[in-house]
Amino acid sequence: MICTPGATIGILGGGQLGRMLGLAARAMGYGIVVWAGPQDAPASAVADRVLKQPLGDLSGTIELLAQCDRITFEWENVPAETVEMLAEHRPCHPSATVLRVTQDRLEERSFLTQLGIPTAPAQGIASATDLELAQQNVGIPARIKTARGGYDGGGQWKVRSEQDLAALPTMDGSTTYRWEKEIAFEREISVILARSTTGEVRVFPIFENEHREGVLHLTRCPARITPEVERRAVQIARSIAEKLEIVGTLTVECFVLADGEILVNELAPRVHNSGHLTIEACATSQFEQHIRAICGLPLGDTALRSPAAMVNLLGDRTRPTVTLVGAADALAIPDAHLHLYGKKEVRARRKLGHVTALASTLDEAVSRATRAHAALSFG
Ligand code: ATP
Ligand code: MG
Fold first, then answer.
1. Domains in the chain, start-ordered, CATH in brackets?
2. What confidence tens digit (pLDDT) does each residue in 44-100 have?
C-alpha cells in the first residue's frame, strides 16, 4: 500500500543519515518523528517530534506507533525485537529479519556463504582455543572484528604479526569476534540499491571508496572499474536484495582484487556514507529513493548527472563546540557543496559533515572536493 506524502514517517536513530532522510522526506511533504534517544542527535533538527527514550524502550514504541504511519531506521543496531513489535502494527522497512542478518558479522557471513558469494577467509572466535585455530587456519595478517556493534572501524584490531596478539581483548567466551584475513585489495567499492514494497529495484552508479584508519575518507563516482566488475558487483547486490526481500536501501561494501575478483566485505541495510554524493550528483538522491521505496512510490532515476567526489569532515580532537572555519574559501570552489550535521561536540574521527564537488571530469571533481576539504577545519 502506498504511504502518501502528508503522512508521517518514523525514523529509528537520530544520526546524520536520519537527518538527511528527514530532509528528503520533508521536502516531499511527509511529517517526521525521530526516535533519537537521549544523546546529541543531528536528526532532531528536521523532525516534527523527537523521542528521547532509549531505543527499545516500550513507551517509545507505543508513542512511535501512535504518531507514525510508516517506520524505518537509519542505523542497523536498533533492537530487532523493537522493529518486530512495531511491524505488527505498522509497515516497518527493512524488516527485523534483515536486521538480524546484518547486525551480526557471523550471521551475515553465513548468509553470504549460503548464497555462494565470495568473502575474505574468516572464522568466528570467542575463546583462546578458537583464537589459536583461526591463527592456524586463516593466518596472519588479519583483522579481528567484534561480531556485533562495530562501525567506522571501531571494535577492530589489526594483527600484522604475532606480537599484535597481546593487544587483543581477552577471549573469555563472553564476546564473539571474527578473525578475518587481511585482503590486499586493489580498490574498495560500494553498490547501493533500493527495493520498493512493490519489488521494483533500482541500482545507483557504483561508488569507489578510500578509507583512512578504518573511516571513509573519499568517495568518487563513477568508480574506476571495468564493465565486467560493474556487472558482477550489481549482480551480487541484486541477488542479496532479492534473497533478503529487503524493502528500502541496501548497501553492499566490496573489495575488488587485482584480477577483478570481488569479495563482499559487509552489508548495510540502509542509506550509506558512500552515497552522500547522490544528493547533488544523481537524478534522485539515496535519501529520496529510500523514502520512495518504503512508501511504495515509483523509484526515481538513479543516473549520474556528473562525475562527483565526496570527502568526509571528521573531528580532529575533543572540543566542546563545533565551529566551522573556512566555509567561504571552500564554497568559492566551483560546484562544491557543504553539508554540516549540526553535531554539538567535536571528537576525534567523529563524522561532522562532508563536502561534495561536481566537475566535468572525475579528476577535477576529486581535486575540488579535496581542496574544499583542505580549506575547512574546526576551531
Ligand atoms: P563502516 O561502519 O565504516 O562501514 P565497519 O566498522 O563496519 O565500517 P568494516 O567495513 O568491516 O568495518 O571495515 C572498515 C574498513 O577497514 C574497510 O572499509 C576496509 O577499508 C578496511 N578493512 C576491513 N576489513 C578488511 C580486511 N579483511 N582486509 C583489508 N582491509 C579491511
Ligand atoms: Mg564497512
1. 8-92 (3.40.50.20), 121-181 (3.30.1490.20), 187-378 (3.30.470.20)
2. 999 999 999 999 999 999 999 999 999 999 998 999 999 999 999 999 999 999 999
DSSP label of 314: E
Q: How far is the CA of 272 from the centre of ligand 2 (A)?
A: 10
Return mean pLDDT, the chain.
96
Among 119, 93, 94, which Cα is nearest to 108's?
A: 119
**CA 211 to ligand 1 centroid distance, Å:** 8
CA angle centred on 263, ends 158 and 357, rounded to 5°: 85
Q: How far apart are CA 77 and CA 221, in angstroms?
A: 28
Residue 295 near residue 2, CB atoms below 8 Å: yes
Residues 6+ apart with CB under 8 A from 267: 101, 102, 108, 112, 240, 250, 251, 252, 253
